[in-house]
Amino acid sequence: MKAHPRLSLNQATIKYATLEEALGVTAAAGIQSIGLWREPIAAVGLDDAVKLVGDSGLRVSSLCRGGFFTVPPGADRAAAIDDNRRAIEETAVLAAAGTAGSAAVLVLVAGGLPEESRDLPGARERVRDAIGELEADAASAGVTLAIEALHPMYAADRAVVSTLGQAIDIAEQFGPSVGVVADAFHVWWDPQLLEQIARAGQLGRIASYQVCDWITPLPADVLLARGMMGDGHIDFGPLTRAVEAAGYTGDIEVEIFNQAIWDMAFAPVAERTAHAFGEHVVPFLAPSLR
C-alpha cells in the first residue's frame, strides 16, 4: 500500500509510540514522511535518533517544537533561548538524516501569558524579539523557524499569536529563515484566512501546512479537540486550494491530538490517516502535485 506522496504523519497523531515504533508504523503504512517531536527524540538521544531516522527511509517534514518565548527577561527567558538554539541544531541534523526532500523546519509555539500578566501586546513583542535573537542561528544552520498561530482559546496559556496574519506580521520582519505554519485546526475559522494565505505565499513564508478536523462538542481538555479529517466541521477544499495557489509544494502533515485516537493501535491509525487524507485533502491538490 502506498499513501499519497505528500502525506506526512505527525508523531503527535500516534502520541504513545516510541520513535522507533513511529518510524516503523509510518513506513509500513506506505507514508513517506514523518513530523517529529523533540520528546521522543530526547528519549533515545539525538545520535540514536539520527540513526533511526536515517535507517527508516522516510523524509522529515518538521520538528516540533520550539518557542515559549513570552517570559520577561531573566534566567527563564535565557534558558528558553538556549533551548531553542538546541532545537535548531536538532532540526538541522534530523532533516539531514532523512531522505531527499526532508525539510529543516522547526515549529514554534509562541507561549502564553506569563503568570499574573495581562499584557498581551507585550508578550507578542517578546516573541518577536526572541525570534530576532534566533534568526542568525537558524539561517546559519539552514533551518526555517515556522511560527504557528494557535486558536485564540489558547492565547492565555499556550500561544499569544492567534491568527495567521499575526504570525506573518512577525515573520516578515526577518529574513527567509522565518516562516509560518498554516494549521487547519487553528485557523479555519478566520474570515481573513484565504487573504492571509495568499499574503504568506507572496512573501514566500509558508513553511508547513498541517491538517486535522475541528470536532464538537469540545472535550473538557480543549487541547484534545482535534479529529480525523472528515469527522468535523472544516472544509478542506478552499483551504487546501489556497495553500496550493500560494505556492506551497511541501509535505502536508496530519497532526491530531485526540485521546480516543491515541488509545488506538498505531497501525490502524496510520492506515485511517492515509485514507482520510486521500478522501478529504488530495482532491484539492494542484493536479501536477496529486
How would you briefly describe this protein structure?
This protein has 290 residues and is α/β, with parallel strands linked by helices. The chain has helices at residues 19-28, 38-44, 46-56, 75-97, 120-141, 164-171, 184-187, 193-202, 236-245, 259-262, 266-280; strands spanning 7-10, 33-37, 59-67, 105-109, 144-148, 178-183, 206-211, 213-214, 226-227, 252-254. It has one domain: Divalent-metal-dependent TIM barrel enzymes (TIM Barrel, Alpha-Beta Barrel), CATH 3.20.20.
Strand order of the largest sheet: 1-2-3-4-5-6-7-10
CATH class: Alpha Beta
Give the % helix. 40-55%
**Hey, roughly how much beta strand do the residues contain?**
15-25%
N-C termini distance: 16 Å
Query: What is the number of domains?
Result: 1
Structural class: alpha/beta
Q: What is the CATH topology classification name?
A: TIM Barrel
Low-confidence stretches: none
- Our count of helices gives 11
